[in-house]
Amino acid sequence: MALLKVTDLSVNYGVIQAVKKVNFEVNTGEIVTLIGANGAGKTTILKTISGLLHPSAGTITYEDQEIQKQKSQKIVAAGISQVPEGRHIFPGLTVVENLQMGAFLRKDRDGVKADYEMVFERFPVLKERRNQDAATLSGGEQQMLAMGRALMAKPKLILLDEPSMGLAPIFIQEIFDIIQVIQQQGTTVLLIEQNAAKALAIADRGYVLQTGNILLSGTGKELLANDDVQKAYLGG
Ligand code: ATP
């Protein structure tokens, strides 16, 4: 079943058409990846789903409701959490306080408490550093904190914007492993990545975006094996 369905989505910045009549869907339980070069429109699509931008045309349907005109707070409350590019943790707040910010819309105190434990279990380094100023975490640790904070909102759908960007190889593998754990524990994932090889390897399905258009789609395996994808995105 489609949890999220994007239909004929167009998004403009003034006269620049960044996204042009894009169609794709994310089914419950899947990892779906959008891959594409710099400027292809990936971040714009994520920001539009999370309500930070509004489309010039098209619809975004989530759990059978159109959400493209809704405010981001309402979209978060409905179960969609975004981890933005570049992390955007709150400096000056500790690790625990950053996690609290993720749960600020929730009223189920016991559930929130259980989810701290879940996040600390998935990211042991955050537990070790729970009372440290988040600004002093390494890049990889900040990425984990941003993912942990998004999970504290208990999302049905998590939107990940280039989680591997700027990370050392050892952290990159860890982040992709954690994305699979997030899926296994029941959260649906929409993943945007420049690291196409790694993203397609864990994705159930993927879409290739080029200058605002979807060029190709298929299972992760199909796209990995595709000659055009190999040449353009996998250095083959
Ligand atoms: P990257 O991988 O480099 O982050 P992307 O696929 O996420 O790229 P977007 O950030 O969605 O691409 O950008 C799509 C297009 O929209 C680009 O041509 C970009 O220059 C343009 N764009 C993005 N934000 C703005 C803005 N605030 N004002 C004007 N143009 C913008």
Automatic annotation (TrEMBL):
Keywords per UniProt: Amino-acid transport, ATP-binding, Nucleotide-binding, Transport
Superkingdom, natural source: Bacteria
SUPFAM superfamilies recorded: P-loop containing nucleoside triphosphate hydrolases
InterPro entries in the cross-refs: AAA+_ATPase (IPR003593), ABC_branched_ATPase_LivF/BraG (IPR030660), ABC_transporter-like_ATP-bd (IPR003439), ABC_transporter-like_CS (IPR017871), BCAA_Transport_ATP-bd_LivF (IPR052156), P-loop_NTPase (IPR027417)
Similarity annotation: Belongs to the ABC transporter superfamily.
Species this protein is from: Loigolactobacillus zhaoyuanensis
Protein name, UniProt field: ABC transporter ATP-binding protein
One term of GO molecular function: ATP binding
Gene3D superfamilies for this protein: P-loop containing nucleotide triphosphate hydrolases (3.40.50.300)
Domain ABC transporter: 4-236
Signal peptide from the UniProt entry: none
